[in-house]
């Protein structure tokens, strides 16, 4: 078999070129730290690395949603905390307004303070979020959630929460109407109230439940006849007479009706009446303040109306404060859940990076060893080829 000299030279040159390409590829791997620098290096490994990279981007997107939700819930929790502090100031002002020594001007001063505190609460309820919406906007985060109209504050946003698109529930708003306008009225079981037309100085407290099993859910009316030492009262249930009829009245003594106990103090006038009704989840913090403010501002208010308004106001504020504290606790629970989600995202990101690294990163020790071997082989082949190329017939004849 004859092999021409040109063929041998061409094969040697091709071998050297291939060795040079391999050597350059090894240098590229060591420089980049990547075993796969183009899909053709390892199609299967490149596909695994690409899937891991896409997973990282998806997790990063989820984490951005978590951070947006965390910011919103942090602001909401802070706003509810400030609202609690403001309501505490409202309570202190109400206690001061109940001082029997105050005249109409003194009560009007406290009414002005309550109006200012009411404005602060409304500002908190309409607080904007970091994304340009409103924290308590429900499902209409871009619309001012509460409007102060002549007949009181009204919710304009749709109830519920706005959530980011994710596999997890990530709220970016809070249901403001459920927080600010839907506390339990009365003491949470029943609501005690004085008739607006009462003329005496009598007033009724919030009352307590003495026997939950005896609660009927009916409405009751306590009507007074006579006055002074001759005052007595009768209790009706949904308009029907009960066994308590013509009972002698003793100021401050407990009155018990079907598992409910309450006190009527002061001196009710003949014809005055008080009511008990089931509690409902519609206590509006702004309406509660409006009622107290209106009573304190009125110059013709008598002692019984002031005492009733202040005590009912304190009862309502206590209920609202408990309601806001529960909402704040829920926001705190959401923040805790978001922290857990962020932790899971961090673990998933670490896993995806590990998969990508296993698929495309180079083993530096092995790469250096292969590079040294290729470099040595290339240099040896190059020297051998150079030596052979210099040979000629004249060199042989020498």
Report the top-level CATH class of the largest domain. Answer: Mainly Alpha
**What percent strand?**
5-15%
Task: Tell me the span between the first and last alpha carbons.
Answer: 28 Å
The count of helical stretches stands at: 8
Helical residue percent band = 40-55%
Whole-number total of structural domains: 3
What is the CATH architecture descriptor of the largest domain? Up-down Bundle
What profile does the largest beta sheet have?
Answer: 6 strands, antiparallel
Question: Care to describe what's here?
Answer:
It is a single chain. With 398 residues, the chain is of the alpha+beta class. It is rod-shaped. The chain is 54% helix and 13% strand. The strands form four sheets. Strands 5, 8, 9, 10, 11 and 14 form a six-stranded antiparallel β-sheet that branches. A hairpin with a 6-residue loop joins strand 8 and strand 9. The chain is built from eight helices and 14 strands. The protein starts with a helix and ends with a helix. Helix 3 runs antiparallel to helix 5.
